[in-house]
Amino acid sequence: MPVAWKPIADSFGAIVTDVDLSAPIDKELGGELRRLFFERRVLIFPEQDMSPAAQVAFMSLLSGVIVEPAMAVGATNSVPKNDRFVFISNTDKGTYGPETDEVVFHSDYMFTPAGALQAQSWYNIENEVESRTSYTNMVRAAALLPADLRAKVEDLFVVNALAMTPGFRFDSRCRMSRVPDAPHAVHPIIERHPVTGDEFIDVSPLFSSHVLGWDDATSEELFAEIEAAVYKPDNIIHQDWNLNDFVAWDNVAIQHRYVSADREGTRTFRRVIANPYELSALWAGAEAALWQPPTGDIFAA
């Protein structure tokens, strides 16, 4: 039986309306959900009663659900190290923030040689404030890239770096001179999706440092051209969070951006990720042997 869903935009995003994810997912339903995921890239399931085990079961349809090592960059880490979920929260249960009002567009782990994580999901378990996650489709952006810009970038490589070294804020681009201090990797600006084979643009405001072989100023000019072509209103969809919303997205094809209207109220998401490789393999491959995750407040000025 086909899954009932409503499009968010013509080209991507779906609100799934008739699936109870607290119940076991049989083979037929699982196949339909996986097909819909890679077709629509972002799936929103409102008002789900979802345990950690149910979230893991859903994400297992997409790839192997992997353990996320505790970085504890914000407050404390209350999740046992071997559990396959973490919290994104401004409370003391948070493994990660958000402690800021905004995190700019990016795909998680795009700074590693293997590229971005294949899929990730958030389930809203505490929601006292207005908050929004926006998603932009980098596959659609590649397909609609103006011909002159495509000709300019199709043979170029980008250095993507983790801009979480001390002294950087999440809304600042990692400078070329600091890249050796951070995990980083080189990728074609136009990449191929490992599951669907679609072309996508592998540049983001958060993680992209510079074009390989170019200086900062010239790289910034090109990045500005790319971002003007990519982050258009007709290529962005929005999720205004409600309690018990569950969202899963293709973290390779889709970049996300988080915004909260208020720092004060409690907000917590439970995150589960799926990927062919464990994170330890991704971290080991990033070219920064002496770098260690920060332990202080990476959001401080």
TrEMBL record:
Residues 6-272 form the TauD/TfdA-like domain. SUPFAM superfamilies: Clavaminate synthase-like. GO terms for molecular function: dioxygenase activity; metal ion binding. Its cofactor is Fe(2+). Pfam families: TauD. The keyword Iron applies. The keyword Oxidoreductase applies. PANTHER family: (3R)-3-[(CARBOXYMETHYL)AMINO]FATTY ACID OXYGENASE_DECARBOXYLASE, DIOXYGENASE RV0097-RELATED. This is TauD/TfdA-like domain-containing protein. It comes from Williamsia marianensis. The lineage of its organism: Bacteria, Bacillati, Actinomycetota, Actinomycetes, Mycobacteriales.
